[in-house]
């Protein structure tokens, strides 16, 4: 069972692992895609803080170099690999480079993503295809590249970075939501195949809430106002700590953030109600009051500059992030549902017993009255 509150601080007892990692030249190896900014960079730094060797994969060389410095300053070793996750051959070559440099891959985290904001009727086929290639096929390519090397050792962990939108779609991000749904379907199939093979390779998917990252300043948009994640918004560092915990513990799924848990469970219980809520709240909730026209964004090319980990919503972001395994959350929901059903049955039984008892008590009275009249 995994149920905890993460606030971005180093977990108790992590210092021993950190010291061991730093003192051992052959320490563990993690690969992070989309590692140059945002969540991916925060995850890379979190592993660096624990003394891991971290391979960073992304398109922007300037941001990759900066992220590598962050990892090394945190205490890890960094390997920079410029690659587009939409290109399967590029990720296969990246995996070969990691193994040839450090000997193995212990954890591979598929984090790279791209999105385009706008109504479905405003999106072009090229935009939808590109979002699919990066957000869905990028995870497929990374998974296949990792598997080829992990199978040789019959060990390793692959982490798919998902979202609450992997279960509950929202308006204005149809291509991104569809890609995240596809990742979940692919992951579930692969999990069954690995189990069938008796493989010791572990597979986990992490579903994220809205996070304060730079993507809302560079994502392609057809909307009239500036972008924002649907509130409530969470800081990236505690989310990255939860992702690292999922990578180490490998639950089937980990749901991070109260809104994620509510959205997934709510969609299981009342999807129609959430349809209406999303139509009202998620449309306006993805825009601020500031005007912004259509922009190219980072969909096809890496934007210049080095925005780092955080976006512009720090003053509104939550630092405390609850995390729960999907199995635990479903168990809680099932227990609540069972309790409600049991209560309803008990109430119905008591009501029925009362109704059948009333005539039984009145029958002798009627008999006595009849005898008195007679």
Automatic annotation (TrEMBL):
Region (Disordered): 1-27
Keywords: Membrane, Oxidoreductase, Transmembrane, Transmembrane helix
Ranges annotated as spanning the membrane: 332-352
Basic and acidic residues bias: start-end ranges: 1-10
Pfam families given in the database record: adh_short
Domain Ketoreductase: 28-214
GO cellular component: membrane
InterPro entries referenced in this protein's UniProt entry, alphabetically: KR_dom, NAD(P)-bd_dom_sf, Sc_DH/Rdtase_CS, SDR_fam
Sample GO molecular function, one term: oxidoreductase activity
PANTHER family (UniProt xref): DEHYDROGENASE/REDUCTASE SDR FAMILY MEMBER 7B (PTHR44196), DEHYDROGENASE_REDUCTASE SDR FAMILY MEMBER 7B (PTHR44196:SF1)
Family listed: Belongs to the short-chain dehydrogenases/reductases (SDR) family.
Record NCBIfam families: PRK07109.1
Protein name listed in UniProt: SDR family NAD(P)-dependent oxidoreductase
Species annotation: Microvirga makkahensis
Upper classification of the organism: Bacteria, Pseudomonadati, Pseudomonadota, Alphaproteobacteria, Hyphomicrobiales
């Amino acid at each position: 069972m995994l149920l905890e509150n993460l606030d971005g601080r180093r977990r108790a007892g992590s210092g021993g692992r950190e010291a061991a990692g730093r003192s051992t030249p052959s320490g563990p190896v993690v690969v992070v895609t989309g590692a140059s900014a945002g969540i991916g960079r925060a995850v890379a730094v979190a592993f660096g803080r624990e003394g891991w060797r971290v391979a960073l994969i992304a398109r922007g060389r300037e941001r990759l170099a900066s992220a590598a410095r962050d990892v090394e300053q945190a205490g890890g070793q960094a390997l920079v690999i410029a690659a587009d996750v939409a290109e399967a051959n590029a990720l296969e070559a990246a995996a070969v480079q990691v193994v040839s440099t450090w000997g193995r891959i212990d954890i591979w985290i598929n984090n790279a993503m791209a999105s385009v904001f706008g109504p479905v009727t405003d999106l072009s086929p090229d935009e939808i295809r590109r979002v699919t290639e990066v957000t869905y096929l990028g995870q497929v390519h990374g998974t296949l590249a990792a598997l080829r090397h992990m199978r040789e050792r019959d060990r390793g962990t692959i982490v798919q970075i998902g979202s609450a939108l992997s279960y509950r779609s929202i308006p204005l991000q149809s291509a991104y939501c569809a890609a995240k749904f596809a990742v979940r379907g692919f992951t579930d199939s692969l999990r069954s195949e690995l189990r069938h093979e008796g493989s010791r390779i572990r597979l986990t998917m992490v579903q994220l809430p809205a996070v304060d990252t730079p993507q809302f300043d560079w994502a392609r948009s057809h909307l009239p106002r500036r972008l924002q994640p649907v509130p409530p918004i969470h800081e990236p560092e505690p989310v990255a700590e939860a992702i690292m915990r999922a990578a180490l513990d490998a639950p089937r799924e980990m749901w991070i953030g109260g809104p994620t848990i509510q959205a997934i469970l709510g969609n299981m219980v009342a999807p129609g109600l959430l349809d209406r809520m999303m139509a009202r709240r998620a449309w306006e909730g993805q825009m601020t009051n500031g005007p912004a026209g259509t922009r190219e964004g980072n969909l096809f090319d890496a934007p210049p500059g080095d925005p780092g980990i955080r976006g512009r919503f720090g003053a509104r972001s939550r630092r405390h992030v609850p995390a729960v395994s999907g199995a635990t959350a479903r168990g809680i929901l099932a227990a609540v549902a069972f309790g409600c059903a049991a209560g309803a049955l008990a109430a119905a039984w008591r009501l029925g017993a009362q109704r059948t008892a009333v005539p039984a008590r009145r029958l002798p009275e009627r008999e006595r009255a009849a005898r008195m009249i007679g």
